[in-house]
């Protein structure tokens, strides 16, 4: 009797293969949300409710899904989201994911908590951005900014929705700690040492985050950063349109409408439901991205039809990485490319600009 080989035709196929290779604790670290995981579930449900009204008889050529994101050309209207500790999934970690992104011609966002130093990731080539968590010591924070600049990162993506880490019950119950060989390579070892030790909170990651990150960021911090770097700034973790408008007013190149993949405030709205209002709140000079729950090329088209300039792809890239290293991560991007092209063709869209003119509803 032979066992059927799982085809990798969808993002979910990569998830199934990845889950077969990972420990239960690492699976939960990747998949879990905060508290009751209401927002985690809402992200997917909200995307499923979005309907797209296709146009017909457009007579266009094969779709062109390329886009300009934060001033640079991308082969697809997406960037690989910043995700921590990718060596938990594969020995090469972020280096494999970055190479896959470079080969696909899309931006790769380096996490502050990358398990490969930002300087080493430059060797992967391609368009790289740097995601900044504001540390307790402003000098350490600016050191991160300067290291990102020196490494050739072209955009700073500042995450603003983690004053403290959300209460991620799966990690707490698993008493999750990082193995000794996986560390936050961009951050001084003393600040992050708690990530390797058992914690009273149950999760060592909660302990180290709450110790290392600044708990009381204000708009003044972003204004100061704007005056201290020439890199474009994208503000990640916004849901309220008023906050999107404020970010644009202080000079942000873009905002990411995000609930952190359902991993921060449980009960926050699904990201995609807040997208149209955010798009309406900012000027054309400020691009709007969205993340949380996007799992297919159709989801990307849904986001574009609701006004997004692009999306961030998170967990699917980790599933690809776990399933096959660089080849697996590249496979996820190839699936999304094929699905998006097919969806654009069926919707009568020649390019991303046409996709953004489609009629869509959120079904809410």
UniProtKB/TrEMBL annotation:
Which top-level group of life is the source organism from? Bacteria
Gene3D superfamilies attached here?
Answer: Aldolase class I (3.20.20.70)
Q: What UniProt keywords are attached to this protein's entry?
A: Flavoprotein, FMN, Oxidoreductase
UniProt-listed CDD domains:
alpha_hydroxyacid_oxid_FMN
Q: Report the Pfam families cross-referenced here.
A: FMN_dh
- Domain FMN hydroxy acid dehydrogenase residues, every copy: 3-364
Which residues of this UniProt protein bind glyoxylate? 133, 168, 260, 263
Q: Where's the active site on this chain? A: 260 (proton acceptor)
State the Gene Ontology terms under molecular function.
FMN binding; oxidoreductase activity, acting on CH-OH group of donors
Chain residues that bind FMN: 82-84, 111, 131, 159, 236, 258, 291-295, 314-315
Cofactor(s) recorded in Swiss-Prot or TrEMBL = FMN
Q: Which family does it belong to?
A: Belongs to the FMN-dependent alpha-hydroxy acid dehydrogenase family.
Its name, as the record gives it, is: 4-hydroxymandelate oxidase
The scientific name of the source species is Actinoplanes teichomyceticus
Its taxonomic path starts at: Bacteria, Bacillati, Actinomycetota, Actinomycetes, Micromonosporales
